[in-house]
Specification:
Radius of gyration: 22 Å
Bound molecules: CU-O-CU linkage, copper (II) ion
Number of helices: 6
Distance between the termini: 43 Å
């Protein structure tokens, strides 16, 4: 892409005109905003590598307040992602995905992150109801251990830490599938791409009492796309093979970087052997920019339905059956699938209906044995409190669009590039507000601190994938989505942003203050 194209788009203006234009570049993926970066390495055969499940983080003790204490070291490591090849990664504890945190509602944990990477980092717990000082403000940098000098801070406000930082997570929230990932201002996309992401699961008694599939029949699935250079390293625009440099997003790639290899839990197109029984899949789209339309295809038969039991922020009131699930980056869908409907020997392929190429496959399940199963999906899952904005509730509009001027060309919210020092909105804790998200192209909108509920999509009822407590909502081109949001407990400064990470890095983020 070049200035000419941007100028052209700028002249055209108008959400509808923008939405109708295909992206240029090496490839286009239907349904995602972004461009495909082609891998150099001949791509591996799908469905050969067994699905790994990330190890569970172990506490190292308790702190003075009685909270479980964990330590995580962020470091460079080698991973075998493509069979027989080495991929250098940036990893939490040197692995990708990072270790999974298993936590319980109301039981706080403290995670001490140590940065042994060559670049500053910020950790955010996505979906966490977290006080501002632990949330991962994009300028609360943890500087590399032993190399704290020389990192410019753009002259803006943030809390610098030398080498280590503690994050306190109260886990005082509904059970749900959360995830933690890198969040440094301007550098989130390339750092997450290189491996800085992991699961954080909150459980509670309500959920434990339900007869849902559990233990090895409960699988967290982190889905993301990557491209690879000929030497097996991750390819990302402007990323040379050196680990010292972590470039920001190049202007030409501000639409979004799409890989041509789909990884699940860090390996390409894995296969998993399952019992003929129900399984709970915690689906997470951890891609920088790619959206998926996930379906479970069965040779010679109809697709296997996915029964949604939860969304970003925990259990739904009642299950919802889907033939396919559209998931944008940052979103989670908690689903139960019933392999007992199929004969032993059946191969069930999770496909992505939004891509006709290699990114059209995600992973495979092989039904290998009959098994007993006393799990089921109850008709009623959880008490669900609908957020009802009172008459006269504050209303705010956030417009997500291409824009900016001069050096700040990129993506904007209400015409402004991310400014940590200026609040777009001061919100009273405990008050329900109505927020309207308006888009030009695709923007998955994410809000920190508290989950929200979708009230309307384009003036009509919420869409098929909007149920429950959401913290990220897939706003498609030229759409208008209204949500009810209520912040609680923690006064401070938080962000809302587009979860297309290239858009986020290109300034599509806003500061909000809770007061
Ligand atoms: Cu998953 Cu502010 O991000
Ligand atoms: Cu978040
Ligand atoms: Cu966006």
């Amino acid at each position: 892409m070049n200035l000419t194209r941007r100028g052209f788009l700028g002249l055209l203006g108008g959400a509808a005109a923008l939405a109708a234009l295909p992206a240029c570049g090496s490839g286009v993926a239907v349904g995602s905003t972004g461009e495909v970066l082609a891998s150099a390495w001949p791509l591996p055969e799908p469905f050969r590598v067994p699905l790994p499940v990330p190890p569970v983080a172990r506490p190292v003790g308790t702190d003075a307040s009685g909270a479980q204490l964990y330590r995580v070291t962020q470091r460079v490591a080698d991973a075998e992602i493509l069979p027989g090849m080495r991929t250098p990664i940036l990893g939490y504890d040197g692995i990708f995905p990072g270790p999974t945190f298993e936590t319980r509602r109301g039981q706080p944990v403290v995670v001490r992150h140590r940065n042994e990477l060559p670049v500053p980092t910020v950790v955010h717990l996505h979906g966490g109801h977290t006080p501002a000082e632990s949330d991962g403000w994009p300028l609360d940098l943890v500087l590399p251990v032993g190399d704290t000098a020389g990192w410019s801070h753009h002259g803006m406000v943030g809390d610098l830490a030398a080498g280590e930082r503690e994050h306190r997570y109260p886990n005082d929230q509904r059970a749900g599938t959360l995830w933690y990932h890198e969040h440094r201002m301007d550098f989130t996309g390339p750092a997450v791409y290189r491996g800085l992401a992991g699961f954080h699961i909150v459980r509670d008694d309500v959920e434990d009492a339900l007869p849902l599939p559990r233990d090895r029949r409960e699988l967290p699935l982190m889905i993301c796309d990557r491209s690879f250079a000929a030497d097996g390293s991750f390819a990302y625009p402007g990323l040379d093979q050196g680990m010292r440099t972590l470039p920001g997003v190049e202007d030409d790639w501000m639409e979004g970087v799409l890989g041509d290899v789909v990884l699940v839990n860090g390996v390409p197109w894995p296969v998993h052997e399952v019992d003929a029984a129900r399984y709970r899949l915690r689906l997470l789209n951890a891609s920088n920019a790619r959206r998926y339309r996930l379906a479970l295809t069965v040779p010679g038969g109809p697709d296997l339905p996915m029964v949604q039991i939860g969304s970003d922020g925990g259990l739904l009131a009642a299950p919802v059956e889907h033939d396919a699930i559209e998931i944008s980056s940052g979103e989670r869908f908690d689903v139960v699938v019933d392999f007992s409907l199929l004969p032993v020997g059946t191969e069930v392929t999770m496909v992505n209906g939004l891509d006709a190429g290699r990114a059209g496959d995600v992973m495979r399940f092989r039904v290998v044995r009959k098994a007993t199963d006393d799990s089921r999906v109850p008709e009623r899952l959880a008490e669900f409190e609908p957020l009802v904005p009172p008459p006269g509730a504050p209303q705010r509009v956030f417009r997500f669009a291409r824009g900016g001027v001069g050096d700040h060309r990129g993506w904007t919210i209400n015409g402004t590039s991310f400014d940590p020092d200026t609040s777009l909105a001061d919100i009273r804790l405990g008050e329900t507000e109505v927020w309207r998200f308006v888009t030009d192209v695709h923007h998955p909108v994410h809000v920190h601190l508290d989950a929200f509920q979708v009230l309307r999509r384009n003036g009509r009822d919420p869409g098929e994938y909007d149920a429950g407590w959401k913290d990220t909502v897939d706003v498609r081109p030229a759409e208008v989505v209204d949500v009810a949001v209520r912040f609680s407990d923690y006064a401070g400064r938080f962000v809302l942003h587009c979860h297309n990470l290239e858009h986020e890095d290109m300034a599509m983020m806003g500061t909000v203050r809770t007061v």
